[in-house]
Write a structure and sequence with these properties.
By secondary structure, the chain is of the alpha+beta class. Among the domains are: 20-117, no CATH class; 478-576, Cation-dependent Mannose-6-phosphate Receptor, Chain A. 43% of the residues lie in helices and 13% in strands. It contains nine helices and 15 strands. It has helices at 2-18, 120-246, 302-314, 318-323, 337-347, 363-378, 412-426, 436-467, 577-599, and strands at 40-42, 49-51, 78-81, 89-92, 251-252, 262-264, 284-285, 485-489, 492-497, 501-506, 509-520, 525-529, 541-548, 553-561, 564-571. It has an eight-stranded mixed beta sheet with strand order 8-9-10-11-12-13-15-14. Strands 5-6-7 form a three-stranded antiparallel beta sheet. 20% of the residues are buried. Residues 204-402 are annotated as: Disordered. Residues 331-354, 373-390 have a biased composition (Acidic residues). Residues 447-577 form the MRH domain.
């Protein structure tokens, strides 16, 4: 029986293609059949009229082809394919009877020599299966979309509330930071004043010390120069008188000397002696034979004789003078001790005053110590305050404060306010010198508050930028923010970040396909523009077509034109109820056509 039914169906289909359809309905959509029922029919563009007999008479009476929907006489006319068992379509009437089967039921080639088989049942079956799947996807997608829309509305309300709260906290915290900043400025100003005073005092002490050192170095030099000058003058005087003695002035060999001493007449050693002064008798000096250690003065030069006499005034030993590198003596000179005492007793030569040249101790040295004492006494006690005082143990941390709230569960902002208030109260009567512990505490509170304020301001900026974006009519694209979708095509990985940018990645290199521009076509497409410039071409751009899907998936990336990319993004955000209803109607219509076809 089934075989017979199938054969009958094929016969009916062949008969339908062989005989032309009625002219009054040929190429006319079912919804327009009533328009053509009148005796006189107007052209749709209002250009004229035609009678029912002129309908589909293969002559164009209306420029828009209203009178020829079933023929190819008017190039602007449209032919309707019923396609029973499948989806109906509309084609240009110029394709009617052109020898090519455009309608699956073959109705467009009713007057040609072509034989068109009716394939609507097979094509319709595949289309219906596809349509059923699409409807099922939309049904599930609509549920997911509605859930995300509700979550997005709550999230946006939460973001707006957070933004309002942060702006209030920012205002309060900004005031606290400004007060701490002013207190910090006062502390730094006082510290700077103290530093300048200290530098000034150190400079004064340094200059006075340098001045004192210069005076001390100058005083010994002057003393040595004066002593050296006196010594040289006395040595010259003694030398001149000794020379006179050796020239044969007065030599008395009959002097009463029990031991055979030779008396030598030496002039009186006085400052400013002259030639007219009377000679003075000298004491006896032992001869070379009596004292083997004595030195024969006849072989001495004037300089050596002068040093011999000068040694009596400087208190130095003649042997030391002869050995000293400073004096440059290589010969040792010595005057016997008895002769020296006799010479001093006879001429009343005063003993030379011993001076300590090693230390150069003088009144200048005393003055220096006195100056140092005055220096210390003039420095104020404040300048020697210990810079490392121990922190005030009375200060308590924020966690230990009991005056924040009665319950002890104050917010962070309340704690900061209380801490700043305590700090400001403690510095209400600001005075110098600066308390280093409290100054450090003020700086710490200022840094902490400033850091918190910076974070709040950053969060405010982020939320403000986010909430000003276009998330769709029902905020369905809210969760696209801060998300990126990836898809691989060949060797490239494409990365699309809505509201930010799109890129093409190959290994470690990345090409910018464009920055976020806007939604287009009623939120059915995302547009990215102003990407990296192509070589001798335009800036790269990307258009992402959106379609319904149960998850966010990027695929179908292509480059139909140079540096102009396209892609498809499946997302539940596009599963809208209106589209679901439309698809359901199509599925119902296809099922109805199938039932009609089965009845035939």
């Amino acid at each position: 029986m089934r075989v017979l039914a199938l054969l009958l169906l094929l016969w009916i289909s062949a008969a339908a293609t062989a005989s032309p359809p009625p002219l009054e309905t040929l190429g006319i959509p079912p919804q327009d059949e009533a328009y053509y029922r009148g005796g006189v029919i107007k052209c749709r563009d209002g250009s004229g009229k035609f009678t029912r007999d002129q309908l589909n008479d293969d002559f164009c009476d209306c420029p828009d082809g209203t009178d020829e929907p079933g023929t190819s006489a008017c190039p602007e006319a449209k032919f309707y394919c019923k396609n029973a068992g499948h989806s109906p379509i509309t084609i240009f009437s110029s394709r009617v009877n052109d020898g090519i089967c455009d309608c699956c039921d073959g109705s467009d080639e009713y007057g040609s020599n072509s034989t068109c088989k009716n394939t609507c049942w097979e094509a319709g079956k595949a289309a219906r299966e596809k349509l059923k799947k699409k409807v099922a996807t939309y049904k599930s997608g609509v549920v997911i979309r509605n859930q995300e829309v509700e979550k997005a509305k709550l999230a946006i309300a939460k973001d707006e509330a957070e933004l309002t709260k942060l702006k209030g906290e920012e205002k309060i915290l900004q005031g606290l930071v400004d007060k701490l900043k002013e207190q910090k400025r006062l502390i730094e100003k006082a510290e700077e004043e103290e530093r300048l005073i200290k530098e000034k005092e150190e400079k004064r002490i340094k200059e006075e010390a340098e001045k004192q050192a210069a005076e001390e170095n100058k005083a010994p030099d002057a003393s040595q120069e004066a002593d050296s000058q006196d010594t040289n003058e006395k040595a010259q005087e003694d030398e001149s008188k000794v020379v006179e003695h050796h020239d044969g002035d007065i030599t008395d060999h009959d002097n009463h000397s029990p031991e055979g001493e030779t008396s030598v007449e030496v002039p009186d050693i006085k400052a400013g002696t002259g030639d007219d002064e009377p000679p003075v008798e000298t004491s006896a000096i032992p001869t070379e034979e009596q004292d083997p250690t004595s030195v024969n003065s006849e072989g001495l030069s004037k300089a050596e004789l002068g040093r011999l006499v000068a040694s009596r005034w400087t208190g130095e030993n003649v042997d030391d003078v002869g050995k000293s590198d400073k004096k440059g003596h290589e010969d040792e000179l010595d005057i016997p001790e008895p002769a020296e005492e006799a010479f001093e007793d006879e001429h009343d030569i005063p003993e030379p005053v011993e001076e300590n040249y090693a230390g150069y101790h003088s009144e200048v040295e005393d003055d220096r110590h006195k100056f140092e004492d005055e220096e210390l006494s003039n420095v104020s006690d404040d300048e020697y305050v210990d810079d490392h005082e121990e922190p005030d143990v009375s200060y308590k941390s924020d966690d230990d404060r009991k005056d924040l709230t009665a319950s002890g569960q104050a917010s962070w902002l309340d704690k900061i306010q209380q801490t700043v208030q305590n700090v400001l109260q403690k510095f209400n009567f600001f005075k110098t010198p600066v308390d280093l512990s409290e100054a450090a505490h003020v700086r710490k509170e200022y840094d902490d508050a400033s850091s918190k304020l910076s974070k709040i301001q950053s969060r405010i900026t982020s939320l403000t930028d986010k909430l000003k974006q276009d998330f769709g009519k029902e905020k369905e694209f809210y969760y696209f923010y801060d998300q990126c979708f990836e898809g691989k095509e060949g060797k490239y990985v494409y990365k699309v970040c809505p509201y930010k940018k799109a890129s093409q990645v190959e290994g470690h290199s990345s090409t910018n396909l464009g920055r976020w521009d806007k939604f287009e076509e009623s939120y059915r497409m995302m547009h990215f523009s102003n990407g990296d410039k192509c070589w001798n071409g335009p800036d790269r751009s990307l258009k992402v077509r959106l379609r319904c899907g149960l998850s966010n998936e990027l695929n179908g990336v292509d480059e139909p034109s140079r540096c102009e990319y396209v892609a498809v993004l499946s997302t539940p955000a596009m599963c809208v109820e209106e589209k679901l209803k439309e698809l359901q109607q199509k599925l119902d219509a296809a099922s109805s056509n199938l039932s009609s076809h089965d009845e035939l």
